Amino acid sequence: MTIRAETKGQISEILADEGASVAAGDVIVRLEANDRKAMLLRAEARVREQQSAYEASESLGKKGYQTQRQADQIFSSLQTARAELEEARIELERIEIKAPFEGVVLSSPMELGAYVDVNGEVATIVDNDPLVVSIRIPQQDVSALKLGQPANVTFATGQQRDGKIRYIAARADEDTRTFRVEVEMPNPNGEIPSGISAEAKVPTGTVMAHFVSPAALSLNDEGKLGIKTVDEHNKVTFHTASIVLSDVDGAWITGLPPQARIITLGHGFVQIGEEVQVAEEQGQADPDGSREAAALLSTGSVEEPTSRR
Fold first, then answer.
1. DSSP per-residue letters across 168-196
2. Which of 13-17, 149-153, 268-272, 295-299 has the highest mean pLDDT?
3. What is the CATH number of the domain that holds 40?
4. End-to-end CA distance of the chain
5. Which has the least CB within 10 A, 3, 103, 164, 271?
6. Do 191 and 165 reside in the same domain of the chain?
7. Is 203 helix (H, G, I), strand (E, B) or coil?
């Protein structure tokens, strides 16, 4: 937040330099009081004068020596004097420019003795706890997000934090057609600085998928991407597949039944509905076992066309 002056004047003290930690209400800069204290004293004297006049007016009014109109005028003068006193007090308080929240002074462009005008920039304060990460979500994915949804953020420094979605824009950016989403997370002691790059992962659900080699994928007569499998009668079937996640080792696909014998060798030589002779092969399991079931349930091979029936 950029802190700005609410009154004008010359800087008499700078109490928080750049990099200093401040609490809410701490004075950052103090301006010269000049004639503000004198204005406050005059306003206080004016209120006392009008208060005495009002009390005398009430006394006269009870005895019938003063009209109601005269009493109202004196009361109005008292209210005006009170308002002027409040304005004088506020104006004197404004010479102390305070931090609105706890944070660190990021910059302070003013120098001792410099003149500050109304709305002049005095300092910039940053509060990194909690930390807010702003991300851009494509328009086709924003419907899967909701407020309060958990997210994991990895920063350019290598640090990670778990947070929750606190804001989803109601309108897409006109240039990129993406939606701004904010993820809020705790950042004790401001360990992670603001302004750095970050990558956010937001889980939107779970799906049952098989891990396969890209070589096992093929196209049917309609040009749809899928997998050829062998059913319980050793006949070739085709399942339209969707890739949900991929890496250098292969792809996770959906569209297959929980258990399937995938043709991993020779799928380009067999047609849908043909009966084949199957030669099973053992798959390789990952260390965490997460792909072992998919490999064991989803691997298989057929012999070359000369061996099929």
1. E-SS--TTT-EEEEEEEE--GGG-SPTT-
2. 149-153
3. 1.10.287
4. 76
5. 271
6. yes
7. coil
| Whole-number pLDDT of residue 204 | 83
| Contact present, 9 and 31 (Cβ < 8 Å) | yes
User: Could you tell me the two tokens for 180?
Assistant: 């701004």
Range of the domain at 136: 131-201
Q: How far apart are CA 276 and CA 298, in angstroms?
A: 17
Which pair of tokens denotes residue 211?
A: 């891990």
How far CA 222 is from CA of 88, 230, 256, in Å, comes to 82, 20, 18
Residues 81 and 107 in one domain: no
Two tokens, residue 49: 């004068």
Q: CA dist 66 to 50, 51, 74, 81, 94, Å? A: 16, 17, 11, 22, 42
Domain match, 115 and 9 both: yes
Evaluate the omega torsion of the peptide bond into residue 188 and state whether it is cis, within 30 degrees of 0. Answer: no
Question: Residues 244, 183: one domain?
Answer: no
Asked if 112 and 20 touch (Cβ cutoff 8 Å), the reply is no
In this structure, the strands spanning 121-126 and 2-4 are: antiparallel
Q: Is the pTM of this model over 0.70?
A: no
Q: Encode 264-286: b = buried (16+ Cβ within 10 Å), e = exposed.
A: bebbeebeeeeebeeeeeebeee
Helix (H) or strand (E) holding 4: strand 2-4
SS3 state at 42: helix
Cα(14)–Cα(112) distance, integer angstroms = 7
pLDDT in tens, 83-112: 999 999 999 999 999 999 888 888 888 888
- Does residue 119 sit in the same domain as residue 2? yes
